[in-house]
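Folding follows sequence. Below is one example:
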Amino acid sequence: MSASLLRRGLELLEPPGRAKVPLGLQRGRAGPRAAGAARRRKRAPELGRNKATVKGRVVRSAIEEYHKKKLVNHLRENLQYMLKGQLVADKAVTEQVLAQNRGRKSKDQPPEKTEKKNPEGTVFTEDDFRKFEREYFGVP
């Protein structure tokens, strides 16, 4: 499942009124040219500084760099987020989503549910069988 589909699904489960502002509006960009203008506004590098010298350079630890770039496991946070939401979608909506995701082939269709029939009980009692046995076989 792609990240965008997962994000859309999570947006559906969020309570109304708590929707996030789209990223474009959040940053206050005026349009696609705003990113280029921001780059042009950055100050030019200092001309007098010699990059070959060590003066003013910060020594970085390789272990710290590794920890910065190490992947973070978000499983616990994601589980907390999923479990805290008490909003449950309607049965009709979930059925509709499942129907849309199902393919058209017969192998993709769910098996039809057949109602189980309860075994019918007998009409005759043990006394009826004994009486029949006496009459038919002549057993006393």
